[in-house]
Amino acid sequence: MRKNLLAKGLMLLVGMLPSSVSAAPRPEMIQAGKKATALVDMGGQGSGTAFCVDAKGLFVTNRHVVAGVAPGEKVKLVLQDSEETQQVVEAYLLASTRKWDLALLWVQGGKAFAALPLGSDANLTETQEVLAFGYPFGKMLAADRSAYPAVSVNGGKITSLRKQKGILERIQIDATINPGNSGGPVLDSQGKVIGVVVSGIFTRGQTGVNFAIPVSHLRTFLAGPHLLLTLPKVSFADRYEPTEFFVKPVIPST
Description:
- This protein is mainly beta.
- Helix content is 13%, strand content 37%.
- The strands form three sheets. The protein has a six-stranded antiparallel barrel with strand order 1-2-3-6-5-4.
């Protein structure tokens, strides 16, 4: 009799636990996020984070990460860093927007990449759990100075939904963010992208006030026309001669 009462008491206690308590992120979801996240190596100009949104080789990062790079020029992306499957590829800068601080990169060649699905920010709530992927401090955390560091995965929660005239402009999160995380994906509990890391407030102590660009802005940015313009090299002697250049449309499937 006492055992039955004890069992019923435990069941009642479990039923009274807050609904916000959730299970740990699934390992496969974390692995998918890691495979799709890339280090943007800008050489002496710093580094940042990008992530794949289309298996055809389309990656998203922040505009400020690739500042100084002109459309059509290349940047270096490193995927699955420090693993046996590490890849170092070159990506063209297709487009960027100052309004949302987003940039679109494209790895040409037809190779398939692991991509993250885009989610929705329509029903986000404060205290909702999220995961942020990225490369804090760039190459500084590598085990070997001649190698690249492994991607960092930080859990946290949404602490505020910053709106302007009713439109969501920034998602505030308390996941640990540092310089180098910019451009990384923020995933919900389903493994879908709900935001892009853009900034944090840094003081002498950790504030835990960090921001992500809502995925709705990312969707709008990706919906625009994106063209790769390839200009030929023209010698000084042929500067007045007719020449050809090529424009290639790149259409995201997301």
